């Protein structure tokens, strides 16, 4: 880690419980500005929960989260969520056309998205402009995922949270989306936190990685820890994933 | 009707009892309880009504209506236990429904301001408002459950709680109003409405009975629209906290 890294999001002793059951336990660490940090770990480890804390969809039971240098609760939730976009697991789609889905962030702010802007959004994520007036619910998994990403990008977020966006996709679509995210990261210096259960992908795309196991941050650091970590639990996890 | 004839109507209770016994339906106990309860409750209401009608005191009318609202509230709130403050939200809805409907009926002199009119009409409208509130809460709950992801999506894009549940709210309000509207389309074709039948049997001119029935079904439309929208708009904020998060529900407890 170089000295010049600026912190985009900082977690300090963050715990999260539901009805007294611990879901996340004492998480401390930084996500760096303009970098891609992957979040890996077994299913049920708490990855999605942690991700949703970064845009205040959940609040810690105890501990603190800083966005830049501001406590997360000091930022008005809608303002924060426009700045910290998220592509949710399963890419939820609203009834209606692709246009309506992509324009949703504007619609919520009573702004109009022009057809020209919408087409450029589609092109940006590699979707054919002919899709604009199709029913979004009829798209394939990969296309829905692209719509979901285009929609999140409309708010021009500084930080983008991605929850298993390629898990349900065929290798070609997965590759396309992976490249799209790398492009977004490079062109606009968007900070990215990326949940993936694909260790190879994590190594490929991530500058840094957090390994979350059973609600605890087992290890975090350079993506190389995914191959080189001496931590038994991490070795077990990465080995297990490969064998699947 | 004489008391002897009333006694003879108990034959209608014996038939299901015998059937239940021979077919082993296991409904004997419930049938008996239902019979006894209806006799006691209705007789009690009959005596109370006689008393109130004779006194013609507004205090008693007020007390009767208040009692109806309390009973209806306690019944309807069971469906919305997960919603904070549901009891007063339903009570407020029923009060508004009663004030608006009676306000129009009495204010325009559509009905005379006597217990004979106010109490039965209030009973019908409050009862319906209660059923509508229950229908709405059931439907709203399942709409929300089916669209948790969409709701979270809108919040995650910077939308407000109101924007996030808008579709579900409108769907649930619509869905709970539709049966009232639909049932009016066929009214009188298959079966005569209960109140109208009662009046006709009691010797009223069918046209007069129809006039009152129309009054009731029109008032029921207002009741349906008011109840579901009021309960809806009063209850949706309780699904969110002040940080615009959906209040976490433990899956395992559902
Ligand atoms: N509403 C809830 N009620 C009960 N348990 C929950 C709820 N939400 C999440 N959990 C539990 O929290 C843990 C972490 O979930 P999640 O963050 O989705 O994990 P991951 O994304 O790593 O698969 C899981 O064990 C899950 O069962
Ligand atoms: Mg997850």
Short description:
The complex is a heterodimer of chains A (244) and B (254). Chain A is of the alpha/beta class and 244 residues long.
Describe the 3D structure:
The complex is a heterodimer of chains A (244) and B (254). Helices cover 36% and strands 26% of the residues of chain A. Chain A is of the alpha/beta class and 244 residues long. Chain A has a single domain, classed as P-loop containing nucleotide triphosphate hydrolases (Rossmann fold, 3-Layer(aba) Sandwich), CATH 3.40.50. A 6-stranded mixed sheet of chain A has the order 6-7-8-3-9-10, with helices on both faces. Chain A has a 4-stranded antiparallel sheet with strand order 2-1-4-5, covered by helices on one side. The radius of gyration of chain A is 18 Å and the shape is globular. Chain B is mainly α and 254 residues long. Chain B has 2 domains: 1-55; 57-253, no CATH class. Chain B is globular. Chain B starts with a helix and ends in a 19-residue tail after the last helix. The chains are: A alpha/beta (244), B mainly alpha (254). Chain A binds chain B through residues 18-19, 55-59, 73, 77-79, 81-82, 85-86, 88, 90, 92, 94, 104-105, 108-109, 151-152, 155, and chain B through 149-150, 152-160, 163, 243-246, 248, 250, 253. The complex binds adenosine-5'-diphosphate and magnesium ion. Magnesium ion binds at residues 47-48, 89, 163 of chain A. Adenosine-5'-diphosphate (ADP) sits between chains A (18, 23, 41, 43-49) and B (248-252). Chain A: This is Phosphate ABC transporter ATP-binding protein.
């Amino acid at each position: 880690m170089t000295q010049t890294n600026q912190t985009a999001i900082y977690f300090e002793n963050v715990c999260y419980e539901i009805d007294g059951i611990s879901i996340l336990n004492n998480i401390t660490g930084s996500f760096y500005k303009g970098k891609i940090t992957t979040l890996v770990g077994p299913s049920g480890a708490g990855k999605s929960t942690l991700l949703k804390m970064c845009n205040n969809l959940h609040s810690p039971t105890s501990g603190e989260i800083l966005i830049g240098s501001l406590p997360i609760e000091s930022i008005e939730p809608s303002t924060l969520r426009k700045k910290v976009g998220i592509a949710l697991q399963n890419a939820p789609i609203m009834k209606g056309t692709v246009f309506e889905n992509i324009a949703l962030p504007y619609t919520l702010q009573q702004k109009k998205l022009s057809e020209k802007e919408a087409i450029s959004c589609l092109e940006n994520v590699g979707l054919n402009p002919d899709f604009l007036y199709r029913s979004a619910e009829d798209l394939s998994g990969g296309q829905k995922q692209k719509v979901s990403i285009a929609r999140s990008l409309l708010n021009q977020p500084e930080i983008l949270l991605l929850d298993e966006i390629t898990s349900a996709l065929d290798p070609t679509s997965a590759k396309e989306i992976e490249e799209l995210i790398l492009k977004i990261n490079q062109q606009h210096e968007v900070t990215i936190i990326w949940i993936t259960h694909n260790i190879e992908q994590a190594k490929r795309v991530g500058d840094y990685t957090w390994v979350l196991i059973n609600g605890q941050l087992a290890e975090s650091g350079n993506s190389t820890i995914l191959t080189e970590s001496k931590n038994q639990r991490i070795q077990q996890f990465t080995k297990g994933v490969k064998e699947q | 009707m004489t008391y002897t004839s009333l006694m003879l109507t108990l034959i209608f209770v014996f038939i299901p009892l015998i059937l239940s016994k021979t077919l082993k339906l296991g409904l004997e106990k419930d049938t008996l309880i239902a019979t006894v309860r209806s006799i006691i409750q209705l007789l009690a209401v009959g005596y109370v009504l006689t008393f109130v009608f004779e006194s013609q005191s507004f205090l008693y009318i007020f007390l009767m209506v208040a009692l109806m609202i309390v009973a209806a509230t306690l019944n309807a709130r069971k469906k919305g236990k997960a919603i904070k403050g549901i009891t007063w939200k339903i009570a407020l809805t029923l009060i508004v429904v009663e004030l608006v409907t009676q306000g129009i009926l009495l204010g325009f002199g559509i009905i005379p301001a006597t217990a004979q009119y106010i109490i039965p009409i209030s009973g019908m409208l409050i009862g319906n408002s209660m059923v509508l509130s229950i229908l709405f809460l059931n439907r709203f709950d399942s709409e929300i459950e089916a669209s948790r992801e969409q709701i979270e999506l809108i919040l995650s894009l910077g939308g407000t709680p109101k924007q996030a549940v808008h579709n579900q709210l409108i769907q649930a309000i619509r869905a709970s109003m539709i049966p009232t509207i639909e049932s009016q389309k066929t009214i009188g074709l298959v079966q005569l409405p209960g109140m109208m039948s009662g009046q006709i049997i009691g010797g009223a001119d069918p046209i007069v009975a129809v006039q009152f029935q129309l009054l009731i079904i029109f008032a029921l439309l207002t009741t349906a629209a008011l109840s579901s929208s009021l309960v809806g708009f009063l209850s949706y904020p309780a699904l969110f906290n002040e940080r615009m998060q959906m209040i976490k529900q433990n899956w395992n407890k559902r």
